[in-house]
Amino acid sequence: xxxxxxxxxxxxxxxxxxxxxxxPIYQSATFVHPGVGESTGYDYxxxxxPTREQLEKRVAKLENGIDxxxxxxxxxxxxxxxxxxxxxxxxxxxxDLYGGSHRLFHHISAKNGLKFDFVNTADIDAVKAxxxxxxxxxxxxxxxxxxxxxxxxxxxxxLAEEHELLLIVDNTFLTPYFQQPLCxxxxxxxxxxxxxxxxxxxxxxxxxxxRDEALAERLRFIYKTTGACLAPFDSWLLLRGIKTLAxxxxxxxxxxxxxxxxxxxxxxxxxxxxxxxxxxxGYEISCKQAGGFGAMISFEVENAAVVRQVLERVSLVQxxxxxxxxxxxxxxxxxxxxxxxxKEEREAKGISDRLLRLSVGLECVDDLIADLQQALYK
Length: 378
What we know:
378 residues; alpha/beta; 7-stranded mixed β-sheet; 5-stranded mixed β-sheet
């Protein structure tokens, strides 16, 4: 079944007795047992809820997984994932990583005894050199946030298999509509469902998707024990958002390519990082492993004064956290998403006081370019 159809019908468990086309919101914390030792399949909503079950089955179908777990946030999903590991075990992660993941690993997971190394996972030799006897997993973000580095998932999955490591891929930027890491050899896919899957900047959510029954069982135990499950109403919002995922991703990508092309032709723009530009270092790999390039752009201006000017002058483009919604948002990574990373580390990755990140939405692209133009040039 095509991804466009799966977005609307994937994982459908069938209509209830009313024939409702929209999945009902089962706003119930608990469920009645038919008898002693009997269950309807639903006992307590922390373990499972009918609305959330529909959502999880749809996301699992889209990612070609055997199970998906819906969490209250993306960081709740990553936090639960870290419970797979024991003190002293080692994880290699992409060095250009969402700031929230970086903060979790450095300040929470490390405190709990886990060890981390951060390397450019686009460099397979660098990853291989970092593997030790304590290494248990590779945590990859591709394209990465905010520098848009691309990791060859097939190549790194072969390395993970060779060393019996778990391969975890954060697929938030491209979504299963454009990229399906489980089909490329990943063991776990992570999503911030807040972003493109929800698509409307109106709720928070996170997902873990797996392709192995034993791993799914382990994560389900962690899931019900730690309890950061997605509420029924938020599950319904995600179901509604996913229905339009295909059309949103296509149009947002189209807008992003036009804006990236415009930006790189402007005076005062030092560099543009967009995977869909043929001169991007990861372009060829992206063409092989993904069906699209997404709608995330980062770009560098001449100095910090221009950054402040842009952020204070944009009107249609909104200066706000997050990404992936229908509205175009602009973010200043060094002050927002990556503020907790030490300055030296941040700047070594290219996250300077001159870098801006753009999440391109669904507005008319001519209007977006006009807004950026008046913001850049007084």
